[in-house]
Predict the 3D structure of the following.
Amino acid sequence: MNRREWIGVAAAGFGRLSGATRDVRNSPSRVVVAEGGSNRDLVLTRQWSGDFCRSTLTNRGRGPVRVREVVLFSIALELPAGTGLYGESLQMLSQTAGTLGEPVDLGYSERKHYRIPQPEDATALTGMLTLSLPGSHLLFGFTSCRRFAGRLYLRPQLLDVVVDTEGLELAPGQSWELEEFAHFRGKDRAELLWRLANRINEHHPPLRFPAPPTGWCSWYCFGPRVTAKDVLANLDFIAEKAPGLKYVQVDDGYQPAMGDWLEPGNAFGGDLQAVLKQIRARGFEPAIWVAPFIAEENSRVFRQHPDWFMKGPDGAPLKSDRVTFGGWRHGPWYALDGTHPEAQHHLENLFRTMRRDWGCTYFKLDANFWGAMHGGRLHDPAATRIEAYRRGMQAILRGSGNSFILGCNHPVWASFGLIHGSRSSADIQRSWKVISATARQNLNRNWQNGKLWWNDPDAVVLTGDLPLNEFVFHATAVYATGGMVLSGDDLTKIPPGRLAMLRKLVPPTGAAAVFEDDSLRVGRITAANRDMLCLFNWQDTRTTLAARVPGRRLVTDYWTGENLGPHDGMFRTELAARSARLLELRRA
């Protein structure tokens, strides 16, 4: 099929879908109850206001009913298999792209890796989904996540819009307010995502931080074997040669056990609190990594307080590997129950101690997904796993005061209004495979940056054996996110040219690139006095890219400073394999 034929098929398919979704208000719904129950006396009320639908489920019977899920809409799809799709997931490390005919996991598979319950015959998404054809886009999304996860089960000819009610009991006469759903259509995908973000912020006022943080992170050069000496050596370098890196972060490795965050670890080789005080004394901000919702079996907190953790069917603390991924170090982990009052007090006290006594003003919260782990029994039997996570996070916020809170490995929608920053990709590694994969993950989430929170594209790494073109690609991708910039290198060993590149990333612009299409080859950042073009060649062969220039502009290569002269209307450039260009456009 040639391009003209494809566009014709796509247009016809979009017309059919528009016809179906135009009547989405009347699409069928159903309530799925637990085995042995009946939905006969359950009444679902759907009320639309413009593009937004609020729903309520009421039990008008005489007995309680356990409700597994509510299918708000079951929408027929008539689209070609080549229709582009993008969807978010419950877990931050999962995303779905590709096409209706061939969905692609951009990160870890929710089904295989995290084993999150979902239909076997569907592609499961959480929060939002876009379907795209040339010049036309549809968006389906949930604009709130106070209590329930909003799921989207996508099949080739059908989309089920689902609220996961987790088998909770709905008592006689009781009503549940379900999460709000939105449905948009339009020619500009970025505008649809902007509308979604604005509505989310109405339901969950975001935590605001004036600018994306900058700093240094110990993990990507020292891993769990980080020592006090390593941190202080890099602090000396930053103070002398990279003072724009404000936050100096000690990552995983300082603690004696997962869960025992306030106790000294022998492997660190120094007094952690003394190191944090030296960071502040040199004019920088102490930052620290914590995984607040998890603990290993040998930790003091788990041995002394097993009642604080989610339970299995047998009433004993639930090992995470029984229901999901067990954890990457010292697993299987146990998950703290955010509905338990004493667990909440523990979280509040932990972060108050680190903020008030240790002086930390930045917290990287990792493994947050386990705070919303499925399959566990909670102290509050009427609570969902979303509520458990949100109550735990609210306790953390009470303790951490005015610190910056970064969510990592977290449930994305459940984190609305609870974090200042959001990791937007998997961990970076010094390989082309990972650099290109994390870039794609990050750039697909550009719509969130500066709207819901500041995106964290993970650390920028500029040392190692990669060729220069791949480092330039990586640095350009980080710049294009508009989000946070933390160096992940042992800066005592960074070459001068790479240090110059790092300095050019600081301070971040705060503005994320908007891309022409889902190929993510041409992105644009618009500012008051200049435009920036972000051009990417993801291929293993050379290619030529062309980008529109808004009037007559002087074009400069941002990384090299090379003057590429005036251009009017269009800029063309040849890009080597696995390379990128970051171009500054100023009025001629």
Remarks:
- The mean pLDDT is 95.
- The first helix runs from residue 3 to 22.
